[in-house]
Amino acid sequence: MKKRYIALCIALYLLSLVAVAVNLFFISIPEFAAPVLSVLMLAALILFLIKGCGRRVSKTVLSIATVLMIVFILFCAYCNPYWNSITFRSYRPYNHTISLKEAKADLDYMMHYLKKDHPLFLMGIPADIEASYNEAVKELELADTITVTTLNQKLQSILSRLGDAHTSSYPNYAVNHYLKYIKSINDKGYNLIQVNGVELNKLFKQYSHLYSFEVESWGLMQLRQDLSSLEGLYFLGLKPESGLTYTYEDKSGELYTFTYEVSDFVTWEEYQSYNNITDSEAEPFVSYKVDDVSSLAVLRLKQCNYNNEYRSCLKAMFTEVRDKGIENVAVDIRGNSGGSSLVVNEFIKYLNVDSYKIETTKWRFGFLNIGSGIKELKNNKYDELLFDGRVYLLTSTSTFSSGMMFGEYIKDNRLGIIIGEAPGNTPTGYGDIATFMLPNSRLYVQISTKQFWRADRESSELLVVPDVECKAAEAMDMLLSMVEADK
Q1: Which CATH architecture has domain 281-485?
Q2: CB 305 within 8 A of CB 286
Q3: Which of 277, 294, 69, 103 is CA-nearest to residue 182?
Q4: 178-266, what's its fold?
Q5: Which letter does DSSP use for residue 278 in this model?
Q6: Is 221 helix (H, G, I), strand (E, B) or coil?
Q7: Which of 165, 332, 380, 471 is the most exposed place for a label (fewest CB within 10 A)?
């Protein structure tokens, strides 16, 4: 009899662990599953204590184990911000129709996880967010037809009010259609200034409620991206069927006007074929070049991927820098939209600094808001490869998240000179996202779980402002001229 109840308790422990693992990697599990499992574990324990005739030791061990498992499963469901955060992808077409009931359910699903995970919602729903939610519901109720795109617009009308560039909704369509001329336009350095005769800045004011941003340049970048895809145009409510007129300006100020129709937007495979792009042309996310004449090494980092490839590339570069006596090292993170902040920690290990200031954080765990408490980090230097020369960093408005943090650490610790444009988000803000799939529309919502404060808490700057400001496209030329001037 005793063994039967012990086996039942152990089976429920294992079921709880399996539920957590399955939720993490495979499927969403309702939060109420946690209290149900907790009640079952408690019932099994009570049965054992009453009818199991166990010894004091076994009763004590099983009681402690049950309490720990109950606390664990409840914490996972109600405090862990990544409960039901998905790792797989599904989709519905942009014009897929859903019912009002389904749309409201998805809206409430998003609000639930905002309340559960976002630091700004710790004390309840902010008044302006609640007002935006109520307005979105009214607009859905008045809509004749609700599509996935319609709902995405309403979700963003709420999320954009947060002023948090990391918290947003987005689709995951099976097939996207891209303006097939955009590569040649970008290669020529053309800048989009008007659509149908409306200036881009005015257009952005009209559609800014559809974008999550902290810095206007980041919102403008998202608008440009949507104007370059068919699905993006439908999200904006623009009708390419009758043709849309785009006006571009080149570096000399000359204007070029083109009219695009639906047929000008093609699938990725067609886009590659039209622009003669092959998979072999794909560049690695990290690479470097050393110019012996200029005594300059440039690390190109497209993404903040902290892995063996990055670490090996960094080590190889600083080894060559040491062996050749290179005096200048630059990191080009223009267009780097983020990833792991550990990439900057790894880079600083090659600099001769004992410690450096880092951001302070508070991480939302359900009803808890846990602070990091760490404001300065010891630098575990690579003594055999330490670099004592000049450090430069190239940034752009599309440098974002951990890319921005790279610049933040360099700037706030006076470790180098930043050249280019201010990155696309603020160092004091929100980040570290959990991602959820809405059950009916299959739209995705990413929600910040952590609040950040700038490494240099005494800085009065809202952004990571470059020491030398210039257009991102001119940053490399500026770097070369500065290195030449310092010879």
Answers
A1: Alpha-Beta Complex (3.90)
A2: yes
A3: 277
A4: Pdz3 Domain (2.30.42)
A5: -
A6: helix
A7: 380
